[in-house]
């Protein structure tokens, strides 16, 4: 006997899936520096930040929590190193900028919803789907979601900062399944990272959709991800769910 698949749980990445920064990081850093009397060019800061965040994440993964750091200390160190690499080497002058930036990135007004985010979440709720967050974010995420009016859409929020597990670690996805009391076969994850989101969720048996935006597809994504799993924008999700449920049958 065959039956139609019915997805019961959707888990969501947040940054660059539901929300994005209103300004590029370099501009935000440069603006805060100017307010403190320090002039550093935004493109230089942007380039430095890219190098620093990669090195910091490698040396102190998941905000250094297992190495005794707090999220705040981790981010302040990122700011100090970014300015140092950009040529501003007076740590005493940069310290108040780091404090301010940590507060600024905690504020909902620093973030904006991607097109169709709220309507898509509402549409999922109308279908009776349970929604949850699974994000490599820190302790500030709950407040940001609340301030933007999105927290009410989610049954629970799991962050790497709270759980100690960074996507694609299977444990963070498995914890979401445990909290929702569903099997992976009736759950799907939505995110913008091929490695962390798409592959991470599929590794535990969940369905997955990759948010790619309007630009050209990365060759790895093009070769590895079926077209029906690719979302050019969030409004494509509900039709993609329909196709998934209508095409999947089992004994």
Automatic annotation (TrEMBL):
GO terms for molecular function: hydrolase activity. It comes from the Eukaryota. CDD domains: HAD_dREG-2_like. InterPro entries: HAD-like_hydrolase_domain, HAD-like_sf, HAD-SF_hydro_IA, HAD-SF_hydro_IA_REG-2-like, HAD-SF_hydro_IA_REG-2-like_cap, HAD_sf. Keywords: Hydrolase. GO terms for cellular component: nucleus. Belongs to the HAD-like hydrolase superfamily. PANTHER family: HALOACID DEHALOGENASE-LIKE HYDROLASE DOMAIN-CONTAINING PROTEIN 3 (PTHR46191:SF2), PTHR46191. This is Haloacid dehalogenase-like hydrolase domain-containing protein 3. It comes from Myotis brandtii.
């Amino acid at each position: 006997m065959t039956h139609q698949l019915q997805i019961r749980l959707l888990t969501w990445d947040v940054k660059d899936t539901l929300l994005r920064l209103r300004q590029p990081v370099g501009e935000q850093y440069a603006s805060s520096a100017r307010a403190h009397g320090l002039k550093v060019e935004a493109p230089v800061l942007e380039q430095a930040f890219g190098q620093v965040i990669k090195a910091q994440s490698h040396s102190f993964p998941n905000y250094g929590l297992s190495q005794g750091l707090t999220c705040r200390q981790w981010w302040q160190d990122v700011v100090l190193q970014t300015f140092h690499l950009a040529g501003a080497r007076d740590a005493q002058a940069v310290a108040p900028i780091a404090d301010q930036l940590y507060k600024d990135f905690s504020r909902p007004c620093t973030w904006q919803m991607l097109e169709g985010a709220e309507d898509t979440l509402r549409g999922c709720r109308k279908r009776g789907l349970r929604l949850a967050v699974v994000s490599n974010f820190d302790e500030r995420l709950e407040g940001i979601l609340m301030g933007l009016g999105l927290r009410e859409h989610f049954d629970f929020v799991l962050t790497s900062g709270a759980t100690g597990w960074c996507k694609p670690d299977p444990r963070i996805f498995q914890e979401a399944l445990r909290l929702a009391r569903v099997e992976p076969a009736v759950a799907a994850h939505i995110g913008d990272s091929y490695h962390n989101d798409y592959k991470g969720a599929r590794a535990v048996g969940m369905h997955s959709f990759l948010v790619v935006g309007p630009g050209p597809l990365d060759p790895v994504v093009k070769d590895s991800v079926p077209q029906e799993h690719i979302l050019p924008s969030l409004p494509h999700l509900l039709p993609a769910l329909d196709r998934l449920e209508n095409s999947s049958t089992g004994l």
